[in-house]
Automatic annotation (TrEMBL):
It holds the Pfam family zf-RING_2. It comes from the Eukaryota. GO terms for cellular component: nucleus; site of DNA damage. The keyword Chloroplast does not apply. Residues 5-46 form the RING-type domain. Residues 141-154 have a biased composition (Basic and acidic residues). GO terms for biological process: protein ubiquitination; replication fork processing. This is E3 ubiquitin-protein ligase TRAIP. One of its GO terms (molecular function) is zinc ion binding. The keyword Membrane does not apply. InterPro entries: TRAIP_ubiq-protein_ligase (IPR052639), Znf_RING (IPR001841), Znf_RING/FYVE/PHD (IPR013083). It comes from Hyalella azteca.
Amino acid sequence: MHAGCVICDEVFMPNIEVSATPCGHIFHTTCVSQWFERSATCPQCRFSGKMELLRLYFAESKNENNQVDADTLQCNLDNAQFPVSLKEKELKKLKEDVTKQKEISDKLRKEVIKLEKEHALQERQLSSMKAQLQVLSDAQQRSKDLRLERDTARAKLSSLQE
């Protein structure tokens, strides 16, 4: 329930001076004082008896949620739930993206392991081929040396036969 001043049409707020007329109606003290400067009747019921104002003091409620109506609460709830639902959708999408990225990462790791094994095999094959090439180069050099020796021996033999 919201109580208010019928003179200014504003709700009574905590720590605002409030006064009551003898007929029991309440107003802001400043509003009713100004009213009585112009008129000698109650602003609400037009009571015209002796107008002595009674100053009222309200204890501020520790639980102000009772003053909020259901529509305001529902509006506040909806306003709070909307960004939450957006964040939940965003979080769900991000989790899906993380799952996809993990799958891609796992596939790439397997591919890297496979390529590293192939690379190691090719390195061993290359090393083996280099060794074979060295053996063949040595054999070729020996073959050239033997040919040269043969040609030299033939030349000597030929010169001896003459």
